[in-house]
Amino acid sequence: MGTAIRKISERKIAAVGLVLMLLVLLMAIFATALVPMDPEEQNIELRLKPPGWTDSEGVKHVLGTDQLGRDVLSRLIAGSRVSISVAAGAVLIGGTIGLIIGLVSGYSGGWIDSVLMRIADMQLAFPFLLLALTMVTILGPSVMNIVLVLSVTSWISYAKVVRSSVLSIKHLEFIEATKAVGASQFTILFRHILPNIISPFIVVASFQVATLIIAESSLSFLGLGVPASQPTWGGMLADGREYMLDAWWIAVFPGIMLMVVAMSANLFGDGLRDALDPR
User: Fold this and answer.
1) Please, are residues 180 and 239 in contact by the beta-carbon 8 Å criterion?
2) pTM of this prediction?
3) Any residues with CB less than 8 A from the CB of 235 and at least 6 apart, and which?
C-alpha cells in the first residue's frame, strides 16, 4: 500500500484527481457548516439573480439565485452530501455483494459458477438506467431506495472482475499448498485469495464512484431520485433547463460539479490502476 501511495503521488494527474475527490468529500462532510444560508429558503423577490449579486441586506449570492430565490451556492454544497453519500453507500453495498459472488463463483466453478454468471448475464441484458428507473418507480423516491437500486444494478462489474482474478490464481502453487495442509474453504477464500485479488476490485470501485454519481443525478433529473425537498445536482439541472437562456447559472454550476467529480474519479482510477499493477 505504501508503494501504491508513492506511485500515485508521482503521477501528477492521479494526484490531482485524488485532491479534487478529497475536496468534494470534505465539502460533503462539512456541508452544514459551509453553506452560507439555508438552501431551502425561498424569496420570490430575489429570483433569478445573477452570480455575484448582493441584496439590500448586504448578503452576497456568489453563484446567484434560482427560480424560487434560493441561493445556488448553498444548494450546490448541500447537494454534494446527497450525491457523495448515495455513491459511497452504493459502492459499499454493491461492491460487497459483487466481491462475495465473484469469489464464490470463481473458486467453486461448475454449476455454481454457471448459475451465478447466467444471473449476471440476464441482468446485463437490461439497460442499466432503464432497470434503475423501473426499480425506483416501484420502490419510490428516497435516499435509501436509491442506494439499494444502484447497489443491485452495479454489483455485476465487481463480480466479473473478481471472478476473472480468482480464476487466474486459484490453481497456483501456494493455493494448492494451502489445500494440502487442510485449510478450510473460508480460510482459502478470504485469507489467501482475497488479498491477492483486492487490487483490481479497488480500481473498479474507484471508477464506479463517478458512474454512480452520474446515475443518481440522472434519476434526480428525471424526478425519480431523492425527494424534491432535498437539493441534488441532478435536481438543480432539471430546474435550470427551462431557464438556460435567462438564468444559465442554475444548471451550469451543478453541471460543472458533476463533470469535476466524474473527471477526478476517473483520473484517480487510472493512476490507481497503474500503481497497483504488479507488472
Assistant:
1) no
2) 0.82
3) 79, 220, 221, 225, 226, 228
pLDDT attached to residue 4: 66
How far is the C-alpha of 55 from the C-alpha of 38, rounded, in Å? 15
DSSP codes, 174-201: HHHHHHHTT--HHHIIIIIIHHHHHHHH
Under CATH, what is the fold of the domain 2-35+67-275? MetI-like fold (1.10.3720)
Spatial distance between the Cα atoms of 144 and 240, rounded to a whole number of angstroms = 26
Average model confidence (pLDDT) across the chain = 83
Distant-in-sequence, close-in-space partners of 182: CB < 8 Å, separation ≥ 6: none
**DSSP sequence for 138-150:** HH-S-HHHHHHHH
**DSSP assignment string, 55-87:** -TTS-EETT-B-TTS-BHHHHHHHHHHHHHHHH
Is pLDDT at 257 greater than 80 in this prediction? yes
CA distance 51 to 72: 9
- CA proximity to 84, closest of 24, 39, 141: 24
> CB–CB of 240/166 below 8 Å?
no
Cell numbers placing 206: 474507484
